[in-house]
Amino acid sequence: MIRDDVQLRYGTVAMIFHWVIAALLIANIALGLYFADLPHSDPWKFELTQWHKSIGLTVLTLSILRLAWRLAHPAPPLPTGMYWGLRVAARASHYLFYFLIVAIPLTGWIMVSASPLGLPTRYFHLFDWPNLWFMADLHRDQKLAWHDTLESVHNTLAWSAIVLIPIHVAAALYHQFIRRDDLLWRMLPRRRARLESAQ
User: Fold this and answer.
1) In a domain, 196, yes or no
2) Which residue of 21, 95, 109, 193 could cross-link 185, Cys pair, CB 3.0 to 4.6 Å?
3) Burial tier of 156 (Cβ tally within 10 Å: 0-12, 13-18, 19+)
4) Where residue 112 sits, what CATH number does that domain have?
């Protein structure tokens, strides 16, 4: 049985959240990898760090809004006939992505708030984004300890995303061009996917 695809596709808002967050996340990972190796004497390091923090905070804000939207607008069901192992993998990867798009920028924000330097985050040169008070008010020695730990966690989460993103892309292409179940088209605009409805 085939039914109209209105309930089987993501809505426009969900699509916008998905692609904007994906683009910002990939750009920010690339930016972070680039400036991480720059010497502190390089005048571009501070500027790129500010842009990295601004983009990260934007990802955090959009991700929280996306989660709120997702709770009010459930995702379309997976195609029928899909092997249970693939269903588990699909759901697990989505939950992991939701965790990462919040945890990566959040740990970055906490890490910056714990910086002994106490430098403000100049959000796209528009205004100073506040540091988190429970970290900013710590003694310098405590900040040093927390900053190093948070930096390690932040980097580990970022590398997790670096591994997961190509897997996610490969899975989408596999579904679209090998399984041919129109899974990819559900997240693309102006395409009426025709999926078999759940029994």
Assistant:
1) no
2) 193
3) exposed
4) 1.20.950
Nearest Cα residue to 78 out of 69, 86, 68: 86
Joined together, the tokens standing for residue 159 give: 């590398």
Which residue has tokens 């997790």?
160
Give me 183's structure tokens.
Answer: 């899974």
Count of Cβ atoms closer than 10 Å to residue 116 Cβ: 14
Q: Is residue 21 part of a domain?
A: yes
Q: Which residue range forms the structural domain that includes residue 164?
A: 5-187
Q: Does the pTM exceed 0.70?
A: yes
C-alpha dihedral over 7, 9, 10, 16, to 10 degrees? -140
Q: Is residue 198 part of a domain?
A: no
pLDDT in tens, 65-113: 999 999 999 888 888 788 888 889 999 999 999 999 999 999 999 999 9
What are the residue ranges of helices labelled H in the chain?
A: 12-36, 43-72, 84-113, 133-136, 140-174
Instruction: Establish if 132 belongs to a structural domain.
Output: yes
